[in-house]
Amino acid sequence: MSAVPNAALPNELAATRPTTPRYALYFAPPAQSALWRLGSAVLGYDAETGTDAPPLPLRRFDAARWREITAEPRRYGFHGTLKAPFRLAPGRSEDELRAACAGFAENRAGFASPGVKLASIGRFLALRLAAPSAALDRLAAGTVAALDDFRAPMSEAEREKRLRAPLTPRQQEYLARWGYPYVLDDFRFHMTLTGTLDDDERALAEAELAEHFAASGADGPLIVREIALYRQEAGPFRLIARFPFGS
Predict the structure, then answer these.
(1) Percentage of the chain with pLDDT > 90?
(2) Among 8, 62, 177, 223, which residue has the least CB neighbours within 10 Å?
(3) Which CATH architecture has domain 21-244?
(4) Domain-by-domain residue ranges, the chain?
């Protein structure tokens, strides 16, 4: 396990201040990998250091508009969700959560999943797996279940916000049980790159990102050897610890 030292937050993101910290369990590529460098550059934020990332050299957008396009995913840092953001349950501490994450990771083995590809998901762009990965689905399901005792119940406002989206009956059941509708059979691994866009701008952004992805070297297999704990306390989510698998 390796903790990440504190660093100054980008001023643009420091306005988001939850009353209590939120945590999330994510897949985060290694900090020196081509995939991490690409994702951080797209968002303009490195969640490992908590600082701005070197920006993409854009051909179709000016820098200000690109910051607007990526503002929503930048709040969360580059990642693939395993267990969605939550606040700690009463009586639980971050130290206990870290210990549980370490114990969970220690009993798992690393694996390789198919690489990722650029795709539209509804009105936003993301990286998705090129082919299904049962191992990654099992990891996400295990993370959701094993660490759910640390999740505080949703507030009514949070529940109402989730229910504004069109959810299937099963997703409504998942929301009530796990605090998030897109888990287990409805889990689809992805790494978000933009906010919602209209058709024309999404086509431009897809062409822009396709060029950078092709030149990045980030199209190899997805090697999963650890889970990452992110925390949001003042500003965007930060990667605060990585928990390597034990076998």
Answers:
(1) 88
(2) 62
(3) Alpha-Beta Complex (3.90)
(4) 21-244
